[in-house]
């Protein structure tokens, strides 16, 4: 995988708090921002989000809130795809070519 563009890389430390605020279980980047075709002046950022199976309360607000927060954080338009909505095998194959995990909720340790 090519390195992430500076516009993405410099904001990664802010992702855990943002993802925690919206109850994100996993956030992945794909497309030009995760590949070599990123144009800092024109490219958007494409994300796959997984809110987890048991976390459906206020999903509408969390989805659109996360979308807006990511756009503000990265200073560019964002396309946000829910992991469960991936169905088309051609789209999935295209996504998998550049997909990179940016955040994964830590697994709680057993007491």
Give a written overview of the molecule.
- The protein is an alpha+beta fold.
- The chain has a single domain (6-104), classed as Beta Polymerase, domain 2.
- Helix content is 33%, strand content 19%.
- It is built from 4 helices and 4 strands.
- It has helices at 6-9, 15-21, 59-74, 89-98; strands at 26-30, 45-50, 78-82, 100-104.
- Strands 3-2-1-4 form a 4-stranded mixed beta sheet, with helices on both faces.
- Strand 2, helix 3 and strand 3 (78-82) form a beta-alpha-beta unit.
- The mean pLDDT is 91.
List keywords for this structure.
single chain; 111 residues; alpha+beta; Beta Polymerase, domain 2; 4-stranded mixed β-sheet; 4 helices
TL;DR?
The chain has a four-stranded mixed β-sheet, sandwiched between helices. The protein has helices spanning 6-9, 15-21, 59-74, 89-98; strands spanning 26-30, 45-50, 78-82, 100-104. It contains four helices and four strands.
From the 3D coordinates, which CATH architecture would you assign? 2-Layer Sandwich
Q: Under CATH, the topology is which?
A: Beta Polymerase, domain 2
Helical residue percent band:
25-40%
Treating each run of at least 4 consecutive H or I residues as one helix, how many helices?
4
Helix and strand sequence: HHEEHEHE
Tell how many strands the DSSP assignment holds: 4
Strand order, largest beta sheet: 3-2-1-4
């Amino acid at each position: 995988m090519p390195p992430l563009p500076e516009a993405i890389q410099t904001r990664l430390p802010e992702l855990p708090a943002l993802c925690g605020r919206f109850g994100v279980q996993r956030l992945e980047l794909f497309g030009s921002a995760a590949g070599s075709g990123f144009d800092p002046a024109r490219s958007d950022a494409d994300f796959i989000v997984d809110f987890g199976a048991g976390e459906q309360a206020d999903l509408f607000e969390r989805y659109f809130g996360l979308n807006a927060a990511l756009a503000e954080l990265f200073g560019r338009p964002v396309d946000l795809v829910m992991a469960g909505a991936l169905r088309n095998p051609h789209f999935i194959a295209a996504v998998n070519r550049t997909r990179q995990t940016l955040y994964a909720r830590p697994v709680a340790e057993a007491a």
